[in-house]
Amino acid sequence: MSVFQERLGDVNRDELRLWYNGYNFLGDKVYNPFDILLYLKNKQFKNYWCETGNPTFLIDLIWKNNYNIPRIEKIKLTDLSYSSFDIDSITVENLLFQTGYLTIDTVKQIGGNNVYSLCYPNKEVKQSLTDGILTQLTKSITPKENNKIDLLTCLEEGNITELKEIFHAFFASIPHDWYRNNEIAGYEGYYASIFYCYFASIGMDVRPEDSTNQGQTDLVVIMDTKILVLEFKIIENSKPGSALTQLKEKKYYEKYLNTTRDLNVYLIGVEFSKKDRNITNFEWEKL
Fold first, then answer.
1. Are residues 115 and 67 in the same domain?
2. What is the C-alpha to C-alpha distance for residues 74 and 207, in angstroms, rounded to an integer?
3. CB half-sphere exposure, 257, CA atoms < 13 A
4. What domain range is 236 assigned to?
5. Distance (Å, rounded) from C-alpha 280 to C-alpha 271?
6. What is the separation of C-alpha 72 from the centre of its chain, rounded to a whole number of angstroms?
7. I need a surface site. Which of 55, 93, 193, 244 has the fewest CB within 10 A?
8. What's the number of domains the chain is made of?
9. Contact 262, 224 (CB under 8 A)
10. Is residue 130 part of a domain?
11. Is the CB of residue 136 less than 8 Å from the CB of residue 178?
12. How much is the mean pLDDT over the chain?
C-alpha cells in the first residue's frame, strides 16, 4: 500500500482491508489490485467484483450438486484437490478456489497431508457470490433488489415479522421450472442457503452452523445492536413449532447474552413445506 500512500490520505484502512484485502497464497495477504484502483478512482466502498460478472457455470454447479451454500465458509482441501485442474472431475470446492471466490485461511499438516482451510477473502467477494446466486434463481434483478431494500429497512427498524413476507415473496418468485429434475426443495439446507445469501448479499455478518455448548444453530446474523438466531425445519419432517422450540430448549442464544454491548437478541424459527416450496410457519421471540 506504500505505492498509493499519497492517494490514501484519510481513508479508513480497516474498512479498506475488510472490503478488498485477504487473498492468501501461503504468504502475506494481498489486496485485489483491480478493486483498489477502482476505489482510488471513485473513493467509494462498493462491490466492484460484481461488475466483472459471476460465472453462471459455477452457480449452476453449486445447485446441481445440491450444495449447502452456508458450508462454503467451512471448506477444506487436501494437496490433491487443491492442485487439481481436471475439468472432467472438478468439484464445487476446487472451482470456488480456482476462480478466486475462496482463498487459503490456514494450513495444517495431518498424517503427512496438508489440509487447507478456505475462506472468503473479503466482504466484496462474499457479497458478489451470494448476490449472484440469488439472481440466478429468479433470472430477474429488480424483485431481488427490492427485497434487499425491504430487508435492510426491516432489520434497521427491528420489524422481525416483516422478514416472513420478504422471504415468502422471494421463494414464490422462483420459477416452477427451476425445480424440475431438482429435489433440493426437500432439504433444510436449500432454505437456509437462501436466507444466508440474502443476509450476506447486503453485507451482514452471517455465521452459519455457529457452535455452542449444546450443538449448532443453523444461522446467526450479527449487527451493531441486534443479533438474529435462526433455526430452520421442514414441516413434513418435524412437528409445527419445533424450530423455535429447539432454539429455546438448546439455549443457542446464551453465548450472545453476556457481552459488553447492549444487544437485542431475537430467536427466529422458520419452517418450510417441501410440497409448497415456501414458508409455512414463522415464529420469533425477543429476549
1. yes
2. 11
3. 8
4. 139-286
5. 6
6. 8
7. 55
8. 3
9. no
10. no
11. no
12. 85
Residue 128 counted as domain residue: no
Phi first, then psi, for residue 274 (nearest 5°) are: -70, -20
Asked if residue 249 lies in contact with residue 269, where contact means CB atoms within 8 angstroms, the answer is no
Report the DSSP pairing between strands 264-273 and 76-78.
Answer: unpaired
Q: Note the pTM of the prediction, 2 decimals.
A: 0.86
Beta strands in 162-243 (DSSP E): 205-212, 215-222, 226-234
pLDDT (tens digit per residue) in 202-256: 999 999 988 777 778 899 999 988 999 999 999 988 888 999 999 999 988 888 8
Residues 6+ apart with CB under 8 A from 137: 174, 178, 194
- The full length of the chain comes to 287
pLDDT at 1 over 60: no
What DSSP element (H or E) covers 110? strand 103-110
Are 91 and 162 found together in one domain? no
Q: What is the pLDDT of residues 103-136, one digit of tens each?
A: 999 999 888 888 999 999 999 999 999 998 888 8
- The cell numbers describing 47, all together, are 462491490
Residue scoring higher pLDDT (226 or 57): 226
Do 156 and 269 lie in one domain? The reply is yes
Cβ(110)–Cβ(116) below 8 Å: no
Q: Based on the fold, state whether residues 182 and 275 are members of the same structural domain.
A: yes
| Residue 131 domain flag | no
Is 127 inside a domain boundary?
no
Element (H, E) at 63: helix 56-64
